[in-house]
Amino acid sequence: MNRLSGRGGVVGFFDEAKHKLEEVAGRVEKFVGEARGDVAMQFEGEAHAEHGEALQEQDDAEGRTEHDKALQENRDEEQARTQAARAEHDQRKLQDPPSGDGMRRAET
């Protein structure tokens, strides 16, 4: 995966950190608003915290989607290899039929 795109890359890490930081900053802002009796600050802090949580959930959902795609690609590749191996095995069977009793006899 390119280091500048997608989950698991540098950008993905910093996006996750930024979203977590927004959530934590919102919680702090809400707490300070409660301590000062500032209702507007409380609501603004809660909004920031919820927005950060929503972005984190979105990141998680996108990560699961990418993970699911990668798993399906692996399954498809494995299935293709299995089918190719079966076809090769069947071709060999057609080219080399077994002897009558299932064992090859040595010529004397």
Mind sketching the topology for me?
Elements: H1 10-36, H2 39-95
Helix pairs in contact: 1-2
Describe the protein in words.
The chain is mostly helical. The chain has one domain. It contains two helices and no strands. Helix 1 packs antiparallel against helix 2. The chain is rod-shaped and about 95 Å long.
Core attributes:
disordered N terminus; 2 helices; single chain; rod-shaped; mainly alpha
Short description:
It contains two helices and no strands. It has 108 residues and is an all-alpha fold. The protein is rod-shaped, with a radius of gyration of 30 Å.
How large is the share of residues in beta strands? under 5%
Q: Report the average pLDDT across residues.
A: 78
Assembly context of the chains = single chain
Largest sheet: none
CA-to-CA gap between the ends?
Answer: 62 Å
What class do helices, strands and sheet pairing give?
mainly alpha
Regions with little confidence, pLDDT below 50 for 5+ residues = 1-7
Helical fraction: over 70%
The radius of gyration over CA amounts to 30 Å
Tally of individual helices: 2
Number of domains: 1
Helix and strand sequence:
HH
Q: Looking at the structure, what is the overall shape?
A: rod-shaped
Number of strands: 0
